[in-house]
Fold this protein.
Amino acid sequence: MGTADRIELNPRVMLGKPVIRGTRITVELILRKIAEGADEATLFAAYPNLTREDIQAALVYAAD
């Protein structure tokens, strides 16, 4: 699965912000948590449905 398969933009979900597909977890939230010093384990504990691939897709999406 690539970034396009994991990141979704839907005006009815989180006001159209990019989110991890099937969740309300925004790319912005993931980036903010990482910038605040969160590591993968912290993100997984806070968001159990999040995967390593989701985090990577959020980073790639933001870089693009």
